[in-house]
Every structure is written in C-alpha cells, then in structure tokens.
Amino acid sequence: MSARITDARVVVSSPGRNYVTLVVETSDGVVGVGDATLNGRELAVASYLRDHVCPLLLGRDPARIEDTWQYLYKGAYWRRGPVTMTAVAAVDVALWDVKGKVAGLPVYQLLGGASRDGVLVYGHADGRDVPELLDRVEAHLEQGYRAVRIQAAVPGVVGTYGVSKHDGRIYEPASGARPEETTWETTSYLDFAPRVFEAVRDRFGFGVHLLHDVHHRLTPIEAARLGKSLEPYRPFWIEDATPAEDQTAFRTIRAHTTTPLAVGEVLNSVWDVQTLLTERLVDYVRTSVSHTGGISHLRKLYALAELYGVRSGAHGAGDLSPVAHAAALHLDLAIPNFGIQEHMGHRDPAGEVFTSSYSFADGYMHPGEAPGLGVGFDERAAARFPYEPRYLPVARRLDGTLHDW
Ligand code: GCO
Ligand code: MG
C-alpha cells in the first residue's frame, strides 16, 4: 500500500528574519520541508496553510505531486496571487523533498539530471557612496563571484533601495512594526546610475558580470532611457525597471534599448509572464520556486520561456529561506535555459535552524548530493526564535506622493 501524509504543520520563526516553513510527514516516517515565506505578509500564508491546506493533505499519497498541485490550485477556485501560490509552493516543494528522500536521490536527478556542472550565482555589492561600492565589489571578486549586483545610494535619496545599513549583516529591507518611510527621486537617479556603472567598469573592467535592480521605480520611457545610457557598460541585466505587473510596459523599453531586461520576482504564475515570454519582451524571468507555485509550476514556466529564448534568473533574496534556495538550485541545475541565480545568503542565526548540502565555489553553487532537497530544519531550534512583525518600506516622491518601493 502506498504511503499517506500523516502530518502537515506550519512553523513560523525568526532566526535573523521571519520564515514560514511547512513540514510534511508520511506514514513511512519520511519528512519533507517547504518554504512559505512571503516577506511582510508571513502570517497570511501561515493561516492559508494551517487553516485551509494542511487538513486537506492528511491521508493523501505524498507521491502524487502533480495531482496534489492541481487539487490545491483548481480546488481553491480562487486562483493565483502571492498568498495562494506561496502556500501551494510550500506543499509542492515539501513533496519533491519527500520523493527525493524515498528514491534516495537529490531532487535535480528527479528533474532530469544536471544540465551543467554548477549554477552561476550573483552576489550583492552596495555602497553608501561609489568608493564604498567599489570596495564591496572587490570583496565579492576576492570571494570568487563572477557576477555582482551593484547598488549605490543616490545622492539626496533617503534610504535608497538595495543599500544595507552597513552593520555587517546581510541586507534586509524589512524592519519594524510599520513600514519605514524612504524617498525616491527619478531625475537624480537617471543621472547617477550610468556614473556608478562607469566607475565600476573603470576599476574592474569587463570581465565580471554586473547586474542592477531598479526595483519598479521608473516609467517605461524612463526605463528606456536608463537602458540606453547603460549600454556602453554592458550590464548583464537591469531588473524590474518598471512596476512588474504591467507586462506591456516592456514593449516600450524593448523598442529603445539592447540592455538585457529581467523581471518577475513579484509575479506568481505562468499567466503573469505569458505576454513577456511570448513576445520576447524580457531576457530573464525572475519568478521563484517559493512564490510561483513550487518546482512543479516553475518548471512549466521555464519550459515556456525556453521556447522563446528567455532564460531563468531566479529571485534569491534572504527572505527566501534555505529551503527555497535549495529548491531553486536543484531546478537551476536541471533546466536547459538556466541564466543566473541570485544568492544573497541568510542572516545569522538562520544556520542554527536550517542546515543545507549546497555549496559555493568559484562563483558557482551546487545543491549537493543529499537525497531530496538536502536541507535540514530543526523545529526545536526554530522555537527559540519567535515571529517578529516586520514590514517592507514604502517610498515617497519629494512632494510626499506614494511611489513604488
Ligand atoms: C531582489 C529583491 C529583494 C526584494 C525582497 C523583498 O532582487 O533581491 O528585489 O531585495 O526587495 O526580496 O522581500
Ligand atoms: Mg529585485
């Protein structure tokens, strides 16, 4: 007789930042984990799972991953959206973890095996000014990174996105029980960004990939101008140049610049990127395992992208737990149209709660050979770090108008 799911529980903890983790147990004693973290809205997904999904999982066959995915997605009637798709993702990833452990194989082997030797990752270099950014880029190159995201504080813009508090900890934009108020000013930014790229290229040359996140701040024609002005510095990509939900904005940007475009970390299903892919409006799609319905749905999205020459460039910020990062690396290793993977790392003391078999060397990561995802989750350790309400910031233009953060 096939195994059954005997328990499914949600653990909300805050070892360095908030994480929502789904733990699934089977009648054979196999335990699988999934990440259900949605930064700033963690408890909504925890409730979705606890109140509406976990009870439905009990008694189901854990081997039937696709059927369970369809059951949760179609069965809810209310489709898509970040809360639903993060909850479904957590179940999906936990079941892939179980399947790998049952088979005694790492998940990437179940997905068709490795298509490459390692997963190219990019790290984050940031600075409160350009000299500090240059130091940070240098530190990344010394660590072996071949690709680096560059962000510098725009003069006059308070709390520029992507610049850490420089307290020695990994960048984390969420803080406090109310959103932090930051400012935004497009004109200074558009003049400043090419100078940042110029300074980095002057110092380090063209042998390193440079990426940049605009974080949804521009209009389509402003984004077109940014793309044109950065062309001489050959960015690997500019990310989220305009608010991501308007797919057609990319028609305008595309018509004006050859700078590669990336989008998708806030999008949650294949339907949210259909126009972007089928019209070849972007070069990289940044949807993640944990916010896009899990491995089962993301690999369909990547398969569609492959048909249109679009590569993956998955979101990998610190708010995606080590479980999500491991799942991403397994998929990255297996798909034919892999592009790059974001790697921010996790704040201490996340390592007291999560262990992982993935590794970094010479700019590449590998998920390791442990069965399943290769991630351990210590529930007792997690209990030492209770949930703390933390919100992502808001951004206002100089006249106080609420802008996209
Ligand atoms: C990135 C992202 C993050 C997000 C964060 C929100 O490219 O890594 O933009 O920094 O802001 O994941 O929770
Ligand atoms: Mg981003």
Describe this structure in words.
- The protein is α/β, with parallel strands linked by helices and 405 residues long.
- 36% of the residues lie in helices and 20% in strands.
- Strand 8, helix 8 and strand 9 (261-263) form a beta-alpha-beta unit.
- Helix 3 (82-103) packs across helix 10.
- The model has no long low-confidence stretch (mean pLDDT 97).
- The structure holds D-gluconic acid and magnesium ion.
- Magnesium ion binds next to loops.
What attributes characterize this protein structure?
405 residues; 2 domains; 20% strand; binds magnesium ion; TIM Barrel; single chain; eight-stranded parallel barrel; 36% helix; Enolase-like, domain 1; alpha/beta; binds D-gluconic acid; globular
